[in-house]
Every structure is written in C-alpha cells, then in structure tokens.
Specification:
Elements lengths: L1 E8 L2 E8 L1 H18 L12 H7 L1 H23 L9 E4 L2 H5 L6 E8 L13 E6 L4 H14 L2 E4 L10 E10 L8 E9 L7 H7 L7 E7 L13 E15 L5 H5 L8 H35 L6 H21 L11 H28 L6 H15 L3 H9 L3 H20 L2 E6 L3 H12 L1
Parallel strand pairs: 5-11
Antiparallel strand pairs: 1-2, 2-4, 3-4, 6-10, 7-8, 7-10, 9-10
Length: 450
Amino acid sequence: MKTELKEISPTRKQIDIEIEADAVRQVYDRISDNYAKAATVPGFRPGHAPRAVVRTRYKDQIRTEVLRELLPSAVQNAIGEHKLEALGEPELNLDNTEGLDQLGQKPITFNVSVEVLPEIKLGEYTGLEIARRTRQVKDEDIDRVIEQLRESSASLQPVEDRGAQVGDTVTANFHGKFVNEPDAEPINVEDVDVVLGGEGVVQEITDNLTGAKPDDEKAFTVEYMSDFSAKGLAGKTIEYTVKVSAVRVKELPELDDEWAQSLGDEVESVADLRVKIRSDLEAQTKNEAEGKMRADLVRKLVEAHQFELPERLIEHQTEHRLESVVRDMVGQGIDPRNPNLDWDKARDSLKDQAGYDLRGSLLLERIADEEKIEVTQQEIEDEINAIADASKQSPDQVKAILTKQGGERSIAGRLRNRKALDFLVANANVTDEEWKEEKQESEVSSQNSE
C-alpha cells in the first residue's frame, strides 16, 4: 500500500492511498470463490459454477464486499502511518473507476480527508501582566442586603381601615370571559394573590382594584398586549368579574437585635449582623475579582495565539451550547418555538463564543503538555466527591452521570486545564488595582478609539 499526505489546511489533511493490484486480487479471488461455493447458477450444479460466471452474475455484491474488507483497514493504517489523530470519521473519496471496474488488474486509488487539531506554537505565556480589581464593600451594600433580609422576613397583615393601595396584596376570585371567543372556556381561579402595581400585573387590574375592600365585587375589561408573558392571554380581551376576599399590607420586621437574632445562632445583634454581612460580601467580591482576573488572563492568552479551529469541533460545541440555552428557556417557561426568536443570530453568537472557549481550552492543554502537568487519581476522586456534595448526590451517582459524558477522562481534562490556569496565575505579574465598572471601562475604550 502506498500513501501520500497532503496538507489542505492546518486542521484538515488529505491522504492519497493506493492499494496494489496484487493485494486487491487476493481478496477478490477469495471472495469470488466464497460466492462460487454458495451460489446457485442456472446450468451448473450448486457450488460448481465457474469463477468468471459468478463474478459476472454477482459483480456488484462481490465488489462491495471487496471494498468493505480493503478500505477501512487501509484508511486506519494510513492514518496510523502518518501519526494523525482524526476528529470524527474520515471522509472517503473513490477516484479510480478503472481500478474498480477491473478488480485485481489495476490498483485501487482513493483519498480520505481527515480533520485534526491544529499544531499550536506557544508564544509567551509566563510573566503576563494582569490586574486584579476587587470591588470595595460599602455601607450601602450592607444596607441593601439587610433590606433584602427584611423583605424576605416580611409578613402580610390585614387592612381594615382603608381600601387597597398600590403595593398591597389583594386576594380575590377571578372569573373571566373571552370577549371575541364566546366558545372559549372561561377563566375561573380562586384565592389569587395580586400585588397592586407589582411586576407582571397589568395596569387595568391595579387601577380597578385600587380602593377595594373585602367582599367588594368589581367588573372590568382587560386588553392584553400581544407579547404578554402568559401565552393563553396574549392578544386577548377578557371581561373580568372579581370578588375580593382580603386586602393585606406588607409589614417589615423592626430593624432591632431581636430580629437579627432570628436569622442565625451566630448573630446576637444588628451590629453582629452587619459584621457578618460585610465578611460574606468581602469573600464574594474576592472570588469575583479572582474569577475576573483569571478570565482576563485566558482572554489575553487567546488574543496572543490565533490559530485555525476544526469546523467539526466548533459545530459540536455550538450545538452543545444551543441545547443548553433551549433547556434553560424551557425551565423558565419560555417556548423556544416562538417565531419571534432569531435563532440564526443566536447561533452565530454562540458559535463565536464556542470558538473562543475552544481556543482557550486547547491553549491550556498545550501549556499543560509543555509544563508536564498531570492529574492524579486522588485528585479525580476528590473532584467527584466535591461534585457529589454540591449536587447532594452520591459519588456513585455522579460517576454514572459522568460515564455518559466521557467518564473520568472528562474530569481529568477539566482538572488538568484548571491546574494549567493555576500555573499561569502563579507565574503572572498580577497587580491589585481599584475596581472599575465594566460600563465605565467600555466607555473609556470607546473614547480612546475615537
């Protein structure tokens, strides 16, 4: 067998392959004889038809079997000979019709196209200049968290001396008729809590229930916008009859030591609560700064190393991201089949991000190779246990899920890339700087470009 390697691009190779006539003849003769032994040909005793007659009668079937036996092994041997690591199945192209029509008399020549990972030549990856910007925790940040905690501890108290106001919670039974669809099933829901002026509450409901008291009955019409969040109501006109059963106002707990103590054993006073919140926020901002710094480091690495990516890998990564987006939409109650969604634009955006992620991952793998970074079995076990703890599953359950995603190899790859990034951080020139909001940074960049 003769082979010749041709480079189509950094990620695509072509191997021209020639299988000599003698090698083809051996297989051709053997398969023809097998057919002759089993074939029933008019005018000949079973199993005694001449080879030439059998070859004529079963020409297509014999040729198919010859190619099925010769080509796969020839392709694998050629790929191994040229030490290629193929991504996916090779694309085969038979280009010698003469060799196919005269099996065993002429060589069979064909070529295969193989996608491979690009050869990555590393530039500078140690001593990179990078900034770590940590957001300062301010008193107003602590105040905001405290207000959120008070909101979560709020209670609803009945209103007895006035009608409902914006911000109050009105509990009512709703009966609705579709104005333009008399045969449609009417709406009948009981004990619905509506926050007047709240998110998702149409203005007509807020306006008509403002001033209402328990046992009041209101009748009004709502014309829902075509893009209303509830698909069954979007673009519809509904005549409502509403019977109010309760009006309640949200009361926040007093900001005192007693309330603070109710939040946990470690808190004895509002002062203790503020200290704890500050500590939690500082840990959060520290993690945020570290994550941003690492992302900036990978971005700087990717920008300094541009190389072609295999289209097959980009498409696979894009599809994976697209499936994740669809799952998230379904989980949020959004119909991904909505005709207003621009999936072509979304795919293009996801494809760009997929390409960026792949470059970052391949660069980290290449650095791990260069620095001889390895992952131990104990590190893999520790990672599995950490995933199990975070997901409240057993290690065996996690292993079962991971087996479908590449098993321990996928974990080892992620850990190896993480250790490579740890190496980059340890060998970077990191400076601590004042926090800057992303919007401010983009505005400065825009002004500088002008």
